[in-house]
Amino acid sequence: MENSLEIKKLSKKYDNFALENISFNLPKGMIMGFIGENGAGKTTTIKTILNIVQDYTGEIKIFGLDNRQNDKKIKEDIGVVLDDMFFPEILTPLDIDKIMRGIYKNWDSSLFKNYLNEFKLPSKKIIKTLSKGMHKKLEIATALAHHPKLLILDEPTSGLDPVARAEVIEIFQRFIENADCSILFSTHITTDLEHVADYITFIDEGKILLSKTTEELLEQYGIVKCNKDDFQKIDAKDYLKYKKTKYAYEVLVENKKEFTKKYNIKVIDKLTLDELMVLMIKGEE
Amino acid sequence: MLGFIKKDLAMIKSNFKLLGILIIIYTIMGFLGKMDISFILPFMSVMIMISSFSYDNYNNWDAYAITFPDGRKNGVKSKYITTILMVLVVSLITLILSFLISYVTTKSINYGETLVTMLGTIFGTLLVLTIMYPIIYKLGVEKARMAIFLIVFGIVIIGGFLVQYIDLSVITKSLAFLENYLGLILIIITILMVYISYKIALHIVMKKEY
After folding, report:
1. CA torsion sign, A256 to A257 to A259 to A264?
2. Is B186 on the interface with A (CB under 8 A)?
3. Per residue in B3-35, pLDDT tens?
């Protein structure tokens, strides 16, 4: 399978934080959810992919090309939403259209205006008067309107209400109907991802904890809820993390089927990404 | 790159009113034979452009701009081009007004002197740009303001020292033969210093992380 994005052994050091040996691939035609708690390294990884952050070691390839040597060519085909970026408040969406026409060769004004209509965004109102959710939708419309092949989105649904989130997710799904297009989607609202992401990559403290297909993750992984006696019978190598609650133990297992065979425990709950994140980060080994 | 220029012009368009008011005040004062403030107008256009750096910083625009094709280079190039264009357009307007004021009030126009004065103004204004922009890219607008204050303060101190203790007449006499080429020399020096400043600013931005 051809990859839109390949990251190999990416490392970047700061005084108080480091990305360490980050590696994952995003195949063409897929959506990858990039999850982790705040400060885990999601934004730094995204900024490194986009060359906003430089001086790193490792290799980043986008559309099979080295991202540093082919920066200009690659960026014609990437649409971006950054978490901490805002359009100048005194501009209007129509100004954005005029500006982007002078930035991207493939900028499509009519497509941009279609998105403005679809998102019910007023084209002549200054951005300052738009709500946070409308601002986010404007960023998404801008990221999509030059026919990119890869969307890199840092918290694109933050600030959106559930209805707006559903609208945006639907647009992302439409976007990847073209098999050449892919999305890297960082978020901490993991419920958005369970329905749309083909892959989940989980980062914590600058390290990748796992990168798997969503199906594999949600089908194979599970949470065993048991009492203290049963927990003590479980071999430490058969679970990833556990958490002691008031009445029971919650144990994260990597392979539900093998676990049930070995321990004859029938009740294994299906995992949600939220539970996975909490157990992986807060659970004990 | 055109997109970056459009963005800067759109952001500072509200300041154009201020520039218009200044041009009107200049014209009225000129007709009344009061103080000549023509030098303020091109200088104001640089100050307005410098405010666009503050907007960019506030909106975290620079990081976003890097996600565009050739974003780092085009961002710097467009700031220089937009500023130079604004300075030249405002200077041209001021020059035409100067001719008009001179003709109406004295019935004669001293083309040469007015032109050299305007060239000097453009030189001085772009000198501010050449010093400020690389410092802004390196330190940000706020720290750059302090830096330019220190630089100007340093120049005044050193200049004052030179005037007081060194006989500059030797230098002025030996350079007197250049007087006829003053306009040309100013143009060449201006182009050179803007080019060098642009290269330094670009080097800073190409290495910068946001």
Report:
1. positive
2. no
3. 999 999 988 887 888 888 888 888 888 788 766
ipTM of the complex: 0.87
The domain segmentation of chain A, as residue ranges, is 3-212, 221-282
> Hey, where are the domains in chain B?
2-207
Does the distance separating the beta carbons of B3 and A78 come in below 8 Å?
A: no
The dihedrals phi and psi of A183, each to the nearest 5 degrees, come to -135, 130
Size of chain A in residues: 285
- Put simply, whether B210 touches A (Cβ < 8 Å) is yes
Q: Determine how β-strand A182-187 pairs with β-strand A18-27.
A: unpaired
Which of these, B79, B77, B65, lies nearest to A75 by C-alpha position? Answer: B65
CATH number of A3-212: 3.40.50.300
H helix runs in chain A, sequence order: 42-49, 71-75, 93-101, 109-118, 132-144, 162-175, 191-196, 214-220, 228-233, 256-263, 273-282
Angstrom distance (rounded) from CA A234 to CA A251: 10
In angstroms, rounded to a whole number, what is the distance separating the alpha carbons of residues A149 and A5? 11
